[in-house]
């Protein structure tokens, strides 16, 4: 809805604004959190579904990489996660999905449409399903796109977190507490987005599932609404530095 979108835009604007002016938040982890907030506004306000999902997956992968380096290679962290490296990784995470979206648009433009019934909203796979022409190239590109923007990021996350947990189990109680404080919010966000994405993909691929139309719409739109609302709440409440700034904003606004 318009109200929820406006609310998310205000929350994200505050997050980005105070990250820009607060020097203590100029670290890769907080930069990536800001990117996550910007992407939430980008996806829900403009309904740019494919690039939004791809950006979210790659940003979550970069966050997992940041935690992996910080916990498993702490002495090399500053040498690996330099401002230049972080900037390049973030640029790639935004530019690559846009390129994929452009290629998908070019491939779809040559298709002949034989139907006009869409499932909830218009996106790439829905257009392919409406075509009665040769869609082999489109299907191959969809598979390639899903591999690079969904499967590969998820595989890296699944690779990194067991290693993080092994290091934490061998470390001191204080180290484990600090590690869990930064990793658990990321895992919560990842699980929430993965479930939402699974619901959307399942419904768009198998529209013949015997589900009430209202439930189908809710499950499909949950992918666009719940993650952007949950992200600032999870990170805002779990990170002391961000929580302090939020309290400061509330006090200053009175």
Number of strands: 0
N-to-C order of helices and strands = HHHHHHHHHH
Which CATH-level-2 architecture?
Answer: Up-down Bundle
Main CATH class: Mainly Alpha
Helix content: over 70%
Rounded mean pLDDT is: 76
How would you name the CATH homologous superfamily? Rhodopsin 7-helix transmembrane proteins
Describe the structure.
The chain crosses the membrane at residues 29-53, 85-107, 140-162, 183-207, 213-237. Its main location: membrane. Helix 1 (2-21) runs parallel beside helix 9 (213-238) and helix 8 packs antiparallel against helix 9. The longest helix has 34 residues, at 136-169. The protein starts with a helix and ends with a helix. With 254 residues, the chain is mostly helical. The protein has a single domain (2-83, 148-253), classed as Up-down Bundle (Rhopdopsin 7-helix transmembrane proteins). It is built from 10 helices and no strands.
